[in-house]
Each structure stands twice: as C-alpha cells, then as structure tokens.
Design brief:
The chain is mainly β and 182 residues long. The chain has no helices and 11 strands. The chain has a 6-stranded antiparallel beta sheet, with no helix packed on it. A 5-stranded antiparallel beta sheet has the order 3-6-11-8-9, with no helix packed on it.
C-alpha cells in the first residue's frame, strides 16, 4: 500500500527582530486567506506550478516534485482547521512530495535580524497519513527541514517552527515545500 501524507500549513510570519515583539508580518498573505474560498464548490482549490492565484505566492516545486498545491477552507473537512484564519495550504497537492510555494521578494536591511515563523501540521483524518516534513528555503538555499508527527484522532497536530537570519540588503524569497527526503 502506498503511504501518502498531508501537510497543513498556515500562519507564516516574517518579521524584523528589531521591530519588537509585535513586529508586522513582512510577507503578503501569510495565512493564505487570499483568494477567499467560501462556497461548497470552492472549499478546496488546486493550483498548478507557476500559478500566482494565491496572493503573494507562486506555486513552485522541488526537482521532480509534485506540481500542485491545495488551498483548503476550514469547512471542507470537519475537524481540520488552520491555526490562523479560515484557510490552510496542503503542500502535497495531488498526493505527492516536493510541491510548494515561493513568496514574492521582501526587502531586507543590511545587518538586520529577521525571523521566519510557520506552523506545520500532520493530519489524522479517519486514519493516519503519517508524519509531515516541510523544507524551508531562503533565497533558494535549504535552511532546514521540520517534521511533525501525526496525532491519533481526527485533526491536525500542529507545531510552530522558526528560523532566523541576517538581512543583506537584497530582497529575500521564502520557499516552503513538502520534503522529498523521506
């Protein structure tokens, strides 16, 4: 039997650490709330490689990876909800690995510390889909892999992760992908 896994992904923030604890999110649409999915026919939407329909993001993939991501409204699957807002992003798309999203470029200041924080969820939905691993890329360089174990009842097992770096004065792009290294 082929095992598949689902990754829920919400609440991505990218902030300057010099802005204080309440620093504004520098990424557009960090909770994937745009476009709005609101009706029974649009509670789930699939976006293919190169799509920019998710505001602030481009659908991307790792070499050989799945070219599709799935944006989902909390009402699509009872018990499955994002950690922030009413939508979450499934980086496994059509049941595969390597699918992801790449942010629009965000300006950085030389020597300023930045923190990328995001929630990764492994789902149990009438059975286990196994652990979820997300690869974080900063300007196309792997910054880390982050794994969440699945829970034992319907719902997401969410974990918050963060990665810090120092700005160079050049724009930065943040990429998140379902890992192909499993």
């Amino acid at each position: 039997m082929n095992m598949i896994f689902r990754i829920g992904f919400t609440a991505l923030t990218f902030a300057s650490l010099t802005g204080g604890a309440q620093a504004a999110n520098l990424l557009a649409n960090g909770s994937f709330e745009q476009p709005v999915l609101t009706s029974l026919s649009t509670n789930v939407a699939y976006y293919s490689l190169g799509s920019t329909a998710i505001t602030g993001w481009t659908v991307d993939r790792l070499p050989g990876g799945d070219p599709v991501v799935q944006l989902t409204n909390n009402s699509a699957f009872p018990g499955l909800s994002g950690t922030d807002g009413v939508q979450w992003l499934d980086l496994t798309g059509n049941v595969g690995r390597g699918a992801g999203v790449l942010s629009d470029g965000v300006a950085t200041a030389v020597g300023t510390s930045y923190l990328v924080s995001f929630d990764v969820g492994a789902v149990y939905y009438y059975g286990s889909y196994g652990p979820a691993t997300v690869d974080l890329y900063v300007n196309n360089v792997l910054a880390g892999s982050y794994t969440v174990q699945v829970g034992n009842s319907n719902g997401f097992n969410w974990a918050r992760y963060s990665y810090g770096f120092v700005g160079t004065g050049s724009p930065v792009k943040i990429g998140l992908y379902s890992s192909t290294s499993l």
